[in-house]
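sry for the spam today, last one i promise. struct tokens for design, 125 residues
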């Protein structure tokens, strides 16, 4: 009996306006109603739950991607700072070497005498 009533209601209300008064925002709105045979309420709730879960998964995936990109950017920025500091120190050392401060750091190393006399030396003698 409920199916018969639902079918008659769907046929009678399909294509009718339901806006209310002339000044109403919904004055010209039309109902599009169709009877869906073998459709149960749990089908609708399952579909809504599935869509909500998939939306949540997408959101989680997007936030993880943004987090990875942010961490990569931060790591690259820190690496860039380190490289810049290294280049600065290297340039400073080079400039100190060019200005003449090398004289302080010159080392004099004495050569050792060879343990075995070389053949060339004996041939010359």
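last one done:
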């Amino acid at each position: 009996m409920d199916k018969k009533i639902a079918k008659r209601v769907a046929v009678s209300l399909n294509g009718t306006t339901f806006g209310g008064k002339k000044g109403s925002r919904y004055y010209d709105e039309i109902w599009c109603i169709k009877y869906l045979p073998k459709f149960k309420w749990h089908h609708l709730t399952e579909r809504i739950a599935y869509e909500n879960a998939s939306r949540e998964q997408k959101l989680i995936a997007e936030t993880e991607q943004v987090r990875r990109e942010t961490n990569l950017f931060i790591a690259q920025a820190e690496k860039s700072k380190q490289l810049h500091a290294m280049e600065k120190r290297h340039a400073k050392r080079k400039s100190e070497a060019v200005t003449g401060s090398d004289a302080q750091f010159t080392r004099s190393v004495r050569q050792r005498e060879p343990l075995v006399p070389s053949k060339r030396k004996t041939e010359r003698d």
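The first helix runs from residue 2 to 13. ok im logging off now
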